[in-house]
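User: Let's play a game. I give you a shape written as C-alpha coordinates, and you guess the letters that built it. Ready? Here's round one.
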Protein backbone atom coordinates (compact mmCIF):
# COMPACT_ATOMS: atom_id res chain seq x y z
CA UNK A 1 0.00 0.00 0.00
CA UNK A 2 1.43 3.46 -0.89
CA UNK A 3 2.61 5.50 2.05
CA UNK A 4 -0.03 8.17 1.36
CA UNK A 5 -2.76 5.59 2.02
CA UNK A 6 -1.53 4.30 5.40
CA UNK A 7 -4.21 4.89 8.10
CA UNK A 8 -3.24 7.23 10.92
CA UNK A 9 -4.78 7.43 14.38
CA UNK A 10 -4.89 10.54 16.57
CA UNK A 11 -6.23 11.13 20.08
CA UNK A 12 -7.61 14.54 20.99
CA UNK A 13 -5.87 16.17 23.94
CA UNK A 14 -7.47 18.79 26.25
CA UNK A 15 -5.65 21.66 24.50
CA UNK A 16 -7.42 20.77 21.24
CA UNK A 17 -10.95 20.46 22.59
CA UNK A 18 -13.40 22.57 20.60
CA UNK A 19 -11.33 22.77 17.43
CA UNK A 20 -12.92 22.01 14.09
CA UNK A 21 -12.16 18.52 12.87
CA UNK A 22 -10.57 19.78 9.64
CA UNK A 23 -8.43 22.27 11.57
CA UNK A 24 -7.30 19.60 14.03
CA UNK A 25 -6.21 17.32 11.19
CA UNK A 26 -4.59 20.11 9.16
CA UNK A 27 -2.31 20.84 12.13
CA UNK A 28 -1.18 17.22 12.18
CA UNK A 29 -1.10 16.46 8.46
CA UNK A 30 0.69 19.52 7.17
CA UNK A 31 1.78 17.82 3.98
CA UNK A 32 -1.86 17.83 2.85
CA UNK A 33 -4.03 20.85 2.04
CA UNK A 34 -7.08 21.68 4.12
CA UNK A 35 -9.36 21.22 1.11
CA UNK A 36 -8.00 17.71 0.57
CA UNK A 37 -8.55 16.83 4.22
CA UNK A 38 -12.11 18.17 4.01
CA UNK A 39 -12.74 15.93 1.00
CA UNK A 40 -11.54 12.88 2.95
CA UNK A 41 -13.95 13.80 5.75
CA UNK A 42 -16.87 14.08 3.31
CA UNK A 43 -15.89 10.79 1.69
CA UNK A 44 -16.04 8.97 5.04
CA UNK A 45 -12.30 8.44 5.20
CA UNK A 46 -12.17 10.12 8.63
CA UNK A 47 -13.88 8.49 11.61
CA UNK A 48 -14.32 10.20 14.99
CA UNK A 49 -14.62 7.50 17.64
CA UNK A 50 -15.85 5.14 14.95
CA UNK A 51 -18.37 7.46 13.29
CA UNK A 52 -18.22 9.81 10.32
CA UNK A 53 -18.48 13.55 10.95
CA UNK A 54 -18.53 16.90 9.20
CA UNK A 55 -15.45 19.08 8.66
CA UNK A 56 -16.92 21.60 11.13
CA UNK A 57 -17.40 18.99 13.85
CA UNK A 58 -15.92 20.16 17.18
CA UNK A 59 -13.55 17.55 18.57
CA UNK A 60 -13.51 16.66 22.27
CA UNK A 61 -10.89 15.39 24.68
CA UNK A 62 -10.38 11.67 24.28
CA UNK A 63 -11.86 11.41 20.78
CA UNK A 64 -10.01 8.88 18.66
CA UNK A 65 -9.71 10.06 15.05
CA UNK A 66 -8.86 7.52 12.39
CA UNK A 67 -7.74 8.92 9.03
CA UNK A 68 -7.35 6.82 5.90
CA UNK A 69 -5.82 9.20 3.36
CA UNK A 70 -6.58 8.76 -0.32
CA UNK A 71 -3.88 9.31 -2.89
CA UNK A 72 -4.94 12.03 -5.35
CA UNK A 73 -5.85 10.82 -8.83
CA UNK A 74 -3.00 11.33 -11.32
CA UNK A 75 -3.35 14.66 -13.06
CA UNK A 76 -3.16 14.86 -16.82
CA UNK A 77 -4.14 17.86 -18.89
CA UNK A 78 -6.79 17.22 -21.54
CA UNK A 79 -7.55 19.22 -24.71
CA UNK A 80 -10.44 21.68 -24.50
CA UNK A 81 -11.89 23.79 -27.30
CA UNK A 82 -11.09 27.21 -25.85
CA UNK A 83 -10.42 30.29 -28.03
CA UNK A 84 -6.71 31.05 -28.27
CA UNK A 85 -4.94 34.00 -29.89
CA UNK A 86 -1.61 33.01 -31.45
CA UNK A 87 0.88 35.83 -31.99
CA UNK A 88 3.62 33.73 -33.58
CA UNK A 89 4.19 30.09 -34.48
CA UNK A 90 6.90 27.92 -36.03
CA UNK A 91 7.83 24.23 -35.85
CA UNK A 92 9.41 24.59 -32.39
CA UNK A 93 7.30 27.06 -30.49
CA UNK A 94 4.28 29.32 -30.32
CA UNK A 95 3.77 32.70 -28.71
CA UNK A 96 0.21 33.11 -27.44
CA UNK A 97 -1.70 36.06 -26.04
CA UNK A 98 -2.96 34.95 -22.63
CA UNK A 99 -6.10 36.78 -21.48
CA UNK A 100 -6.45 38.01 -17.91
CA UNK A 101 -8.45 35.61 -15.77
CA UNK A 102 -7.11 32.45 -17.40
CA UNK A 103 -4.92 30.16 -15.32
CA UNK A 104 -1.86 28.84 -17.17
CA UNK A 105 -2.11 25.25 -15.93
CA UNK A 106 -4.09 23.11 -13.49
CA UNK A 107 -3.41 23.61 -9.82
CA UNK A 108 -5.17 24.06 -6.49
CA UNK A 109 -8.90 24.12 -7.20
CA UNK A 110 -8.50 24.57 -10.99
CA UNK A 111 -8.62 21.51 -13.23
CA UNK A 112 -10.05 22.76 -16.52
CA UNK A 113 -10.39 25.89 -18.62
CA UNK A 114 -6.67 26.58 -18.41
CA UNK A 115 -4.29 27.83 -21.05
CA UNK A 116 -2.75 24.34 -21.24
CA UNK A 117 -6.16 22.83 -22.06
CA UNK A 118 -6.52 25.35 -24.90
CA UNK A 119 -2.95 24.72 -26.13
CA UNK A 120 -3.44 20.96 -26.34
CA UNK A 121 -6.58 21.43 -28.43
CA UNK A 122 -4.85 23.88 -30.75
CA UNK A 123 -1.42 22.26 -31.17
CA UNK A 124 -1.80 18.64 -30.08
CA UNK A 125 1.57 17.38 -28.86
CA UNK A 126 3.73 19.77 -26.82
CA UNK A 127 7.02 19.39 -24.97
CA UNK A 128 6.95 17.04 -21.99
CA UNK A 129 9.80 18.59 -20.01
CA UNK A 130 7.45 20.16 -17.45
CA UNK A 131 5.30 17.02 -17.03
CA UNK A 132 1.79 15.99 -18.02
CA UNK A 133 0.08 18.81 -16.12
CA UNK A 134 2.18 21.57 -17.73
CA UNK A 135 3.03 20.41 -21.27
CA UNK A 136 4.84 23.07 -23.27
CA UNK A 137 4.99 25.59 -20.43
CA UNK A 138 8.39 27.28 -20.23
CA UNK A 139 7.36 30.27 -18.10
CA UNK A 140 4.13 31.57 -16.54
CA UNK A 141 1.97 34.63 -16.04
CA UNK A 142 -0.26 35.26 -13.04
CA UNK A 143 -3.95 34.52 -13.51
CA UNK A 144 -5.04 38.16 -13.70
CA UNK A 145 -2.08 39.27 -15.83
CA UNK A 146 -2.42 39.24 -19.61
CA UNK A 147 0.06 39.14 -22.46
CA UNK A 148 2.59 37.21 -24.47
CA UNK A 149 3.68 33.77 -23.29
CA UNK A 150 6.02 31.31 -25.01
CA UNK A 151 5.10 27.65 -25.47
CA UNK A 152 7.51 24.88 -26.53
CA UNK A 153 6.29 22.26 -28.99
CA UNK A 154 9.12 19.79 -28.40
CA UNK A 155 11.64 18.95 -25.69
CA UNK A 156 14.67 20.30 -27.53
CA UNK A 157 13.05 23.72 -28.04
CA UNK A 158 11.88 23.73 -24.42
CA UNK A 159 15.39 23.12 -23.15
CA UNK A 160 16.87 25.84 -25.36
CA UNK A 161 14.26 28.38 -24.26
CA UNK A 162 14.63 27.37 -20.61
CA UNK A 163 18.38 27.88 -20.92
CA UNK A 164 17.79 31.41 -22.21
CA UNK A 165 15.45 32.15 -19.32
CA UNK A 166 17.83 30.79 -16.68
CA UNK A 167 20.73 32.61 -18.32
CA UNK A 168 18.72 35.85 -18.26
CA UNK A 169 19.10 36.24 -22.02
CA UNK A 170 15.41 36.82 -22.66
CA UNK A 171 14.10 40.38 -22.49
CA UNK A 172 10.65 40.67 -20.91
CA UNK A 173 8.84 44.01 -20.93
CA UNK A 174 5.58 44.70 -19.13
CA UNK A 175 3.16 47.62 -18.97
CA UNK A 176 1.87 48.42 -15.48
CA UNK A 177 -0.43 51.13 -14.20
CA UNK A 178 0.31 51.90 -10.56
CA UNK A 179 -1.24 54.01 -7.86
CA UNK A 180 0.34 57.32 -7.03
CA UNK A 181 2.76 59.69 -8.70
CA UNK A 182 6.08 57.90 -9.28
CA UNK A 183 8.57 60.69 -8.66
CA UNK A 184 11.55 59.46 -10.69
CA UNK A 185 11.30 59.10 -14.47
CA UNK A 186 13.13 55.79 -14.25
CA UNK A 187 14.56 53.52 -11.61
CA UNK A 188 15.75 50.06 -10.60
CA UNK A 189 14.33 47.96 -7.78
CA UNK A 190 16.75 45.31 -6.56
CA UNK A 191 15.29 43.47 -3.59
CA UNK A 192 15.17 39.72 -2.82
CA UNK A 193 11.75 38.09 -2.93
CA UNK A 194 10.58 35.42 -0.48
CA UNK A 195 7.35 33.82 0.68
CA UNK A 196 5.61 36.03 3.25
CA UNK A 197 6.05 34.20 6.59
CA UNK A 198 2.68 35.44 7.88
CA UNK A 199 0.42 35.49 4.79
CA UNK A 200 1.44 32.43 2.80
CA UNK A 201 -0.47 33.44 -0.33
CA UNK A 202 1.79 36.47 -0.68
CA UNK A 203 5.41 37.08 -1.51
CA UNK A 204 7.43 39.84 0.12
CA UNK A 205 10.46 42.02 -0.60
CA UNK A 206 10.66 43.32 2.95
CA UNK A 207 12.90 40.68 4.53
CA UNK A 208 16.59 40.08 3.93
CA UNK A 209 16.18 36.44 2.94
CA UNK A 210 14.88 35.44 -0.46
CA UNK A 211 15.86 34.95 -4.07
CA UNK A 212 17.67 37.78 -5.81
CA UNK A 213 15.43 39.83 -8.09
CA UNK A 214 15.61 43.09 -10.02
CA UNK A 215 13.11 45.15 -11.98
CA UNK A 216 13.71 48.34 -13.96
CA UNK A 217 10.99 50.85 -14.77
CA UNK A 218 10.46 54.05 -16.71
CA UNK A 219 7.49 56.37 -16.74
CA UNK A 220 5.43 56.33 -19.95
CA UNK A 221 2.50 58.52 -18.95
CA UNK A 222 1.11 60.29 -15.92
CA UNK A 223 -2.51 60.62 -14.82
CA UNK A 224 -4.16 62.18 -11.79
CA UNK A 225 -3.27 59.73 -9.01
CA UNK A 226 -1.78 57.09 -11.33
CA UNK A 227 1.40 56.42 -13.35
CA UNK A 228 1.79 54.18 -16.38
CA UNK A 229 5.13 52.35 -16.35
CA UNK A 230 7.17 50.20 -18.67
CA UNK A 231 8.86 47.51 -16.56
CA UNK A 232 11.71 45.21 -17.53
CA UNK A 233 12.58 42.25 -15.35
CA UNK A 234 15.89 40.43 -15.30
CA UNK A 235 14.61 37.63 -13.08
CA UNK A 236 11.29 35.79 -13.04
CA UNK A 237 10.29 35.41 -9.39
CA UNK A 238 6.74 34.72 -8.30
CA UNK A 239 4.68 37.96 -8.33
CA UNK A 240 7.94 39.86 -8.93
CA UNK A 241 6.64 43.06 -10.54
CA UNK A 242 3.65 43.23 -8.21
CA UNK A 243 5.85 42.79 -5.13
CA UNK A 244 8.57 45.19 -6.24
CA UNK A 245 6.22 48.03 -7.20
CA UNK A 246 4.26 47.60 -3.97
CA UNK A 247 7.54 47.71 -2.00
CA UNK A 248 8.19 51.27 -3.24
CA UNK A 249 4.66 52.39 -2.37
CA UNK A 250 3.08 52.07 -5.83
CA UNK A 251 0.93 48.91 -6.04
CA UNK A 252 -0.41 47.79 -9.41
CA UNK A 253 -3.99 48.90 -10.05
CA UNK A 254 -6.41 46.09 -9.19
CA UNK A 255 -3.86 44.15 -7.13
CA UNK A 256 -5.53 44.24 -3.71
CA UNK A 257 -3.27 41.42 -2.45
CA UNK A 258 -0.36 43.86 -2.52
CA UNK A 259 -2.06 47.00 -1.28
CA UNK A 260 -4.12 48.43 -4.14
CA UNK A 261 -7.50 49.83 -3.06
CA UNK A 262 -10.43 47.97 -4.54
CA UNK A 263 -12.49 51.01 -5.44
CA UNK A 264 -12.28 54.33 -7.25
CA UNK A 265 -11.83 55.25 -10.92
CA UNK A 266 -13.71 52.16 -12.08
CA UNK A 267 -11.16 49.77 -10.57
CA UNK A 268 -13.76 47.35 -9.27
CA UNK A 269 -15.23 47.01 -12.74
CA UNK A 270 -11.78 46.34 -14.21
CA UNK A 271 -11.78 42.92 -12.55
CA UNK A 272 -8.07 42.25 -13.13
CA UNK A 273 -4.59 43.67 -12.57
CA UNK A 274 -3.42 46.47 -14.82
CA UNK A 275 -0.33 44.42 -15.65
CA UNK A 276 0.37 43.25 -19.18
CA UNK A 277 3.26 41.23 -20.65
CA UNK A 278 3.75 43.52 -23.62
CA UNK A 279 6.91 42.35 -25.32
CA UNK A 280 9.38 39.47 -25.26
CA UNK A 281 12.66 39.14 -27.14
CA UNK A 282 14.53 35.84 -27.45
CA UNK A 283 16.56 33.67 -29.82
CA UNK A 284 14.58 31.22 -31.92
CA UNK A 285 15.65 27.65 -31.06
CA UNK A 286 15.82 26.39 -34.65
CA UNK A 287 18.29 28.98 -35.99
CA UNK A 288 19.33 31.23 -33.06
CA UNK A 289 17.77 34.20 -34.86
CA UNK A 290 16.69 36.99 -32.52
CA UNK A 291 12.96 37.58 -32.59
CA UNK A 292 10.62 39.95 -30.78
CA UNK A 293 6.93 39.29 -30.12
CA UNK A 294 4.56 42.10 -29.12
CA UNK A 295 1.15 41.77 -27.48
CA UNK A 296 -0.98 44.93 -27.84
CA UNK A 297 -2.55 46.39 -24.72
CA UNK A 298 -5.98 44.73 -24.25
CA UNK A 299 -9.05 46.83 -25.05
CA UNK A 300 -10.26 46.93 -21.43
CA UNK A 301 -6.93 48.43 -20.34
CA UNK A 302 -6.95 50.97 -23.18
CA UNK A 303 -10.48 51.96 -22.16
CA UNK A 304 -9.37 52.32 -18.54
CA UNK A 305 -6.59 54.71 -19.55
CA UNK A 306 -9.06 56.71 -21.64
CA UNK A 307 -11.30 57.12 -18.58
CA UNK A 308 -8.38 58.28 -16.47
CA UNK A 309 -7.35 60.82 -19.12
CA UNK A 310 -10.76 62.47 -18.81
CA UNK A 311 -10.61 62.89 -15.02
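Assistant: Ready! My guess for every position:
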Amino acid sequence: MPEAEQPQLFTVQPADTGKRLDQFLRERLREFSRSRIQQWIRDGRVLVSGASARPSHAVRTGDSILVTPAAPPPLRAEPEDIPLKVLYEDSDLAAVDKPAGMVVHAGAGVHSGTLVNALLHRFGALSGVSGEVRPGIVHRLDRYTSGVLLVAKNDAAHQRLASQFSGRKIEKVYLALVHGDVKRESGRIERPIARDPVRRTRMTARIAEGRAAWSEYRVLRRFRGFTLLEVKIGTGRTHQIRVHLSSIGHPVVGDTLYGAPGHGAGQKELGRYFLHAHRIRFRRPKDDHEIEIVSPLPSELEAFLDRLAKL
